[in-house]
Amino acid sequence: MILAQEREAVVRFCREMLAENLTTGTGGNISVFSPEEKYFAISPSGKDYRTMVPEDVIVLDLNLNTIDGSLKPSSEFAMHGIFYQNRSDVNAVVHTHSLYATAMACLGWTLPPFYYLNMIAGTDVICCPYARYGTKELAQFALKGMENRNAVLLSNHGLLTGSKTIEKAFNIAQIIEKACQIYLTCKSTGVEPNRLNNIQVDEMLEVFRNRGYSNGH
To answer: 16, 37, 55, 76: which one is catalytic?
Structure first.
């Protein structure tokens, strides 16, 4: 089976995404890129994650042509592919519909550098402009919004993260969801949370770079 390990990883982390309440139903999507093969494995469209098997995962090339798999790829295949076409530091992409990150996205808010852990994705996490799901326009907005970062909020939609490995991309999605929850909780008091200063931000960016998180650079 082509990209057997990558397909198995997609199945595993789609189930993790559901178990961690980072999505509901068949929402969201995950992909893993093989730099050696120049192909990526992506979750299929509308498939129940609980019954999905590696053979259900679709393999695409960098021109977004199907190489292997009988099901339709996720409707967001262009949004995944654009990162593998343009970001050598990204070998996995996770797209969630998690509650608090999606709330931030629906508000159109940027997640500022207020919580030391959210520097895992870069200085801040911006909310990119709205475009209909599954479009090349949304893919382009996401790529621009994640410039120098490893996460972006998709306006009125959800969260997208990317990193060198699927484990890191998924961890970023978990941490940014928690950071969005903390931020919205702080805002519910009517007070803006304290922000880290530039020195503190740079310190944390360096910590995460040393742990293998590129912060988009």
So the answer is: 76
Tell me, yes or no, if 76 is annotated catalytic.
yes
Helices (H), the chain: 4-19, 77-86, 99-107, 136-145, 166-187, 198-210
Q: Is the dihedral of CA 212, 155, 176, 9 positive or negative?
A: negative
Check pLDDT > 70 for residue 133: yes
- Reduce the DSSP state of residue 48 to 3 states and report it: coil
Cα–Cα distance, 16 to 21 (Å, whole number): 8
Phi, psi of 162 (to 5 degrees): -150, 150
DSSP-assigned letter for residue 111:
B
Q: Tell me the C-alpha distance between 100 and 124, whole Å.
A: 16
In sequence order, the 6+-apart residues with CB closer than 8 A to the CB of 207 are 119
pLDDT digits (tens, 9 = 90+) for 148-186: 999 999 999 999 999 999 999 999 999 999 999 999 999
Give me the residue label for tokens 């993260």: 161
Helix orientation angle between 136-145 and 77-86, rounded to the nearest 10 degrees:
50
What is the pLDDT, as a whole number, of residue 210?
93
pLDDT tens-digit series, residues 182-210: 999 999 999 999 999 999 999 999 999 99
Strand-pair category, 29-34 with 39-42: antiparallel
Return the bridge partners of 68, or none. 59
pLDDT at 63: 98
